[in-house]
């Protein structure tokens, strides 16, 4: 309980200091604002996006504060800055607003496509029925009797239409997974083919049957049956083009994240570039570890520190050649570069030591917390009704004993922005409900997981832009490179064709496995 009270006092200090720092920052900005900005000029203005205050458990931590921390910083430090390190200019804001407008256009295009497909599908299913009913309505008395043959054809048409309806629903009417920049070529071709096919049937029906008022009703019904059969064959063609054609692997794509270089390999079939990009993104959310920009700030600050400008003084006067100064600066930079690897080595070693130490503390704290929980059996629940707790109450009871160790570990590994106190309590309650071990509970926090593991509002990549030199509707080819960009990073995709493999066969007779023992004077045999 004392640890929980210390934690609450720490975060109350953090919230007070963050509000005071933001107020002072706003006053300083207003005091030093230039007269040009008052006149409405926006050429040099930029906007800094501030992250909202975090949950009481996990506060944001800057990378510069992490460099000078000791092992006991959690007990002494009560305030950290809450300003985000990400800033964007007004050009970026204009680009984001344009992307939002484009997304509205994509929604309109998607609903328009669905509307056209629904209207065409309704026309397809009503056409055979109309072919059969129109003669009965317009010239019923002049029709020749059909009898049992027509009744059998009616049953055939009914069941074929039912099969076609189920197949169309399973193939076409599915929840869309993404908004693609261009139309799906094969699906558009199928819609055009179906429209031309139905239109030609209606044209023939109007000229040869409606105008002449054909009295052969059995031939009219068979005409409708032939239409349904042709629609079933078009549905088979759609299955081949939309589903089966892409199953055989033909290409291998390498996906590299531009910020940290993490890469994966995937095998794809005959797909267009935009559909290949969609498959890459689906696998990215599942296979790649979540993008953490906080892990990159340390390397950036270290590089900026080593590449700081060097002052060179010219003691001989300004008349000397500048080549001597440039040579001196290059030599000094080379000497600093030779010593920078030592600093990098000791920084990484110290960080690994801190991570291992806090990891050990976290494991011990969680194991001790889990020892206080015992699942009651059915007969035990009747003996002590007053001491029973549900999983949520049990999680809230044992959480304070592990909160500080978990907080320190997440801050050290820079994962605090992905885990709120509510999400940790929900995960702890889930583990308690399913009788999971402490190791299973810690798996989410000890190893960064894929993007799908975290809440959607914690993702840094929700809207993507496809950049390609080739048309996005063209198929994949050997050597094609396209880029998937989001706000903070990009995925570079390189396509390679799977080589043709020539496999030969060689037969070995089992009776040919004969051996001879060679004895020498030096051997012990």
UniProtKB/TrEMBL annotation:
Record's Gene Ontology CC terms? plasma membrane
User: Which family does the entry's similarity section mention?
Assistant: Belongs to the Vang family.
Chief localization class?
A: membrane
- Native organism: Vidua chalybeata (Village indigobird)
- Basic residues composition-biased segments: 19-35
Where does it live in the cell? Answer: Cell membrane
Q: Which PANTHER family match?
A: VANG-LIKE PROTEIN
Q: Where is the composition biased (Basic and acidic residues)?
A: 36-45
Membrane topology per record: Multi-pass membrane protein
Membrane-spanning residues: 111-133, 153-172, 184-204, 224-244
Q: Identify the domain of life.
A: Eukaryota
Bias class Polar residues marks the residues at 74-86
Could you identify this protein by its name? VANG1 protein
């Amino acid at each position: 309980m004392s640890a929980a009270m210390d934690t609450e006092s720490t975060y109350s200090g953090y919230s007070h200091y963050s509000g005071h720092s933001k107020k002072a920052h706003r006053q300083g900005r207003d005091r030093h604002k230039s007269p040009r900005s008052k006149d409405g000029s926006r050429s040099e203005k930029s906007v800094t996006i501030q992250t909202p205050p975090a949950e009481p458990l996990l506060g944001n931590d800057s990378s510069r504060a992490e460099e000078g921390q000791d092992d006991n910083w959690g007990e002494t430090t009560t305030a950290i800055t809450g300003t985000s390190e990400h800033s964007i200019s007004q050009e970026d804001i204009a680009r984001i607003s344009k992307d939002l407008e484009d997304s509205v256009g994509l929604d309109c295009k998607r609903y328009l496509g669905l509307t056209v497909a629904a209207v065409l599908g309704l026309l397809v299913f009503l056409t055979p029925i109309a072919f059969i009913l129109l003669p009965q309505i317009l010239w019923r008395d002049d029709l020749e009797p059909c009898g049992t043959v027509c009744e059998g054809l009616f049953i055939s048409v009914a069941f074929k239409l039912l099969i076609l309806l189920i197949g169309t629903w399973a193939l076409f009417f599915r929840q869309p997974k993404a908004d693609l920049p261009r139309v799906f070529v094969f699906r558009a071709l199928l819609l055009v083919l179906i429209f031309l096919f139905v239109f030609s049937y209606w044209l023939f029906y109007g000229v040869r049957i409606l105008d002449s008022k054909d009295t052969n009703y059995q031939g009219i019904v068979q005409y409708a049956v032939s239409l349904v059969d042709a629609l079933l064959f078009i549905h088979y063609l759609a299955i081949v083009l939309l589903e089966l054609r892409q199953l055989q692997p033909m290409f291998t794509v390498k996906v590299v994240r531009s910020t940290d270089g993490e890469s994966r390999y995937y095998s794809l079939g005959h797909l267009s570039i935009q559909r290949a990009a969609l498959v890459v993104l689906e696998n990215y959310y599942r296979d790649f570890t979540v993008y953490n920009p906080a892990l990159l700030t340390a390397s950036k600050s270290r590089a900026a520190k080593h590449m700081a400008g060097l002052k060179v003084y010219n003691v001989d006067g300004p008349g000397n050649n500048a080549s001597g100064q440039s040579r001196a600066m290059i030599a000094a930079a080379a000497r600093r570069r030779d010593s920078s690897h030592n600093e990098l080595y000791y920084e990484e070693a110290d960080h690994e030591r801190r991570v291992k130490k806090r990891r050990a503390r976290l494991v011990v704290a969680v194991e001790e917390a889990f020892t206080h929980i015992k699942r009651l059996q059915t007969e035990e629940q009747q003996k002590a009704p007053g001491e029973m707790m549900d999983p949520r109450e049990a999680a809230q009871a044992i959480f304070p004993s592990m909160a500080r160790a978990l907080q320190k570990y997440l801050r050290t590994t820079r994962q605090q922005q992905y885990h709120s106190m509510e999400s940790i309590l929900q995960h702890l309650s889930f583990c308690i409900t399913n009788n999971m071990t402490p190791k299973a509970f810690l798996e989410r926090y000890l190893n960064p997981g894929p993007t799908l593991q975290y809440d959607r509002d914690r993702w840094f990549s929700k809207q993507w832009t496809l950049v390609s030199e080739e048309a996005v509707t063209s198929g994949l080819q050997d050597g094609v490179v396209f880029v998937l960009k989001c706000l903070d990073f990009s995925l570079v995709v390189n396509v390679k064709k799977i080589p043709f493999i020539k496999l030969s066969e060689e037969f070995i007779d089992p009776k040919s496995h004969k051996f001879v023992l060679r004895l020498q004077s030096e051997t012990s045999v």
